[in-house]
Batch of 4 targets.
Target 1
Amino acid sequence: MSWAFLRDLLSGVNSYSTGIGRIWVAVVFMFRLLVYVAAAENIWKHEHDEFECNIKQPGCENVCFDHFFPVSHIRLWALQLITVSTPSLLVVFHVAYRENREKHHNQKLYKNPGKIDGGLLCTYLISLILKTGLEIVFLVLFYKLYNGFKIPRLVKCDIKPCPNTVDCYISKPTEKMIFLYFLVATSCLCIVLNLSELSYLIFKYSIKGYLKRHVKKQQ
C-alpha cells in the first residue's frame, strides 16, 4: 500500500497548525505511519499462515483464526491511521475555499487565508473533536474485538468443524504485544495532544474576544 497521499495530507495540514498541532503531525508521521510501514506491517504479514492448531481437521484452523481475529490488527491499525487523519482535510478544504474565493473576487479578502480565525477556527475545532472521537472509537473497538489489549500465546477453540477443544498457537506473540502496546500508547498520546490543542485554542480566542469587548467598553 502506498502511503504517499497520507504523507502529503499531513504535510499540508502542518502549514496551518498550531505548535501543538505540529507535534501531533510529527507523532502521526514518525511514530505511527513510519513504524507501521517499516516494521509492524511485516510482523502481521503472514499471521494466518503462522496460526497453528494441534489438529489437522479441515476448516478448523480457519474458523478458529476468524473467531479470535475477526479483523487483522494491522488492517485495523491502517484503517485507524487513515480515518483519524481524514478530518484534517476539512481544514485544507476550508483554506482552499478561502483562496479560491479571493481569486474569484480578484481582491484580498483575508489577511492570511491559512490563519486560524473566524470560520476556519470553527472548522479547525470540529476537526480536532472528530479526530479525538475517532481515536477513542478505535481504542474501544480494539478492546472489544480482542477482549482487551493483549495477544495470548495459546487460545483454546471448540468451534465446529473442530471435533473437540483444540489448542491453537499464535506466532510471535511477544513481538506483536509490544507493537500493540505501542499502538495504544501513541493513540492515547494523540488524544492528549488533540485535547490540549482544543483547550488552548478555546482559551486563547475566549481571552482574545473578552479583551476586544473590554476595549470597546472602555472606548
Note: The beta strands are 52-53, 154-157, 166-169.
Target 2
Amino acid sequence: QGSKLEIPLWLAKGLHDSKRRIISVELPKIYKEAWRTVFSADANVVDLHKMGPYYYGFGSQLLNFDNPENPEIAQTILQTFISRFRRIMDSSQNAYDEDTSVLVARLDELERALFRAGQKGLNDFQCWEKGQASQITASSLVQNYGKRKFTDMDG
C-alpha cells in the first residue's frame, strides 16, 4: 500500500475499480494544472510529440478514471485541438513540394495524420488542376451514403 508504480494504461484500466479502490491514478504532468495553464495561454508553442506523441488519445483515456479534474482536462484537450487545428491545416496546404519534417516534428500523432490528410488533399488537387488526374471519383463516404439510402427505401 502506498507504493507508486508506472504501469501501462491497459493494466491501470483493468485494475481500476471505483468500488474496491485497488489503485489510484496520478495524472501525468502534461495533464496537470500547470500545463493546462500553458495550453490555455498558447497551445501552439507546446511540443506535443516530445511530451507524449498520443496526447489527445491518452488524455481522453484518462477521463475513464475517477478524477475531480476530469472536466478541466477534457476542456483543455478540446481547446488545445481547436487552437492547433487551423495552424496544422494551413501548414499542410502551404507546404507543397517541400520538406515538412520540421513542421510535423512537434505534432501529436493525431495531428500528424491530419497534416498528412491535408497534404494528400492538396497534392490530389494539384494533380487534378494540372490535368494529371485521370478522373474525379466520389468518396467512399458518399458512395456508401447513396447505397444506404437506396436500401432504406427498399425496406
Note: The chain has one domain: 9-151.
Target 3
Amino acid sequence: MASKLLRAVVLGPPGSGKGTVCERIARSFGLQHLSSGQFLRESLGGGGAHWLSQGGQDHFTAVSLIPSVVRGHEIEAWTHNHNSFPRTLGQAKALDGICELDLVISLNIPFETLKDRLSARWVHPASGRVYNMDFNPPHTQGVDDLTGEPLVQREDDRPEAVAARLRKYKDAAKPVIELYKSRGILHSFSGTETNKIWPYVYTLLSSRIPPVLPEEEH
C-alpha cells in the first residue's frame, strides 16, 4: 500500500490511447487500473477520462481519481450518473466535490491520426476486445481470436461518424483542460504513437511515486 495519496486522471479524445497508457502506469507503479471494462464499458467507451488506483476492494489509494474514503459502489454510482467524466466543465467542477486532483495527464494526438485509428477499429461485442486492422489485426479477418465469433465495427467508429465525435470532444474538453491548466496540475503530451509518449509520462509519474518496474520493460 502506497503511503502517499495521489489523485490523477488521464484525459484524451477517443482513440488517443488512454487505456494503453493507464495499463502501463498500472504495471509500472503497482497500481490497479479501474477501467471502463470493470465498471461501465459502454458508457465509458467514448472518450473522456480513465482513472487508476491502488488498494483493496473497499478503499482506493495512490494514483486515483477517487479519494481513499470513497468505496467501489460509490464510484460505480458516480460513473453511472455522470457517464465518462470529466467530459464537461460542469462535470469537472462537480468532481471537485468528491476530491481535489493532484495531477491531470492530457494526451494530444493529431485528429488525422485519430480518424485513421478509429476507422480501422473493430470489436468483439461480448468481451469488448478491440482490434485495429492496421497494427493489431485478428488472426483471421473478421473474427475474434479467442472465440471465433464475428467482429463488428461500432456505429461511431465508422468513418462518417468519427469526425463528428472528435469535434464534439474538442468542444467539450477545451474548458476542462483550461481549468486544470489554470490550477497548474495539467501535463500535456503530444505525439502520434503511444510508445513515444510513454517515456515522458513515466518520467513525470516517477517524480511522484516510486516505480516497481523500469521503463524499458514496456
Note: The first strand starts at residue 8 and ends at 12.
Target 4
Amino acid sequence: EYEGDRDAEGQRHGFGKARLPNGDTYEGEYEHGLRSGHGTYRFKNGALYTGNYLQNKKHGKGVFFYPDGSKYTGDWVHDQRHGYGEYLYANGDTYTGEWADNKRHGQGTYVYKDTGSKYVGCWVNGIQDGPAELVHLNYRFKGRFLNGKPLGRGKFIFDIGCEQHGEYIQPVQVKEIEKEEEEEDEPPLPLEPIWKVSEITKLTPWSPHDDE
C-alpha cells in the first residue's frame, strides 16, 4: 500500500507513506520510486530507523533502534554503520568513535558500564588493536593492544603519582606429550598475556606511539 506523491511516470516521488508486504512501514521522501532523502522506517520486529536514505539504502546521518534495546546514532554509507557514530549497547556499554563496514574501526572510546572503565584508542575490524589507554577508577594502563589483548611495552599510571613500567608477554603454550590412544583434543585456548614489571618511576611522558 502507498499513499503519497508520484512523478510523471507514476513512480513514488516526493513525500509518501508505504506499508511493505512483510509488514514493515516507511514514511518519508522518495525519488523516482526509491527511498531517498529523510524518512522513518519501522520494522515489524520492533526495530526502527530514522534518518537519511539514498536509493533505498541508509546513507548519511541516521539513528537505528535495535529490537534488543541497543541504539546507533551516526553516519551510514550504503546501509552500513560507516564514519563516526555512537552505539549504546543493550547492557549499557557505549562506544563512540569511528566505524567501517558496520564494525568499530579507527579511533574510538568504549565505556564499560559495570566497572566504569574505558578503552580509548585504536580498533581494527571491531577488535581492540593498536596504541591505546585503558582507564580504570584510580589508575590507567597505557600501551599497545593486539587482537583485543595488551601486548608489548606499556605502563600503569597510578593516581598517587607513580608509574609501573613493563611489558605484556605472550606465554608459550606447553604441549603435553600425547598418548596414542587419546582422541583429538580441542585446540587450547590462547593464554592471557602476562605482565612483567621492569621499573617503577615518577610520572613520565612515555607513550605507545614512541615505539612506532
Note: The mean pLDDT is 93.
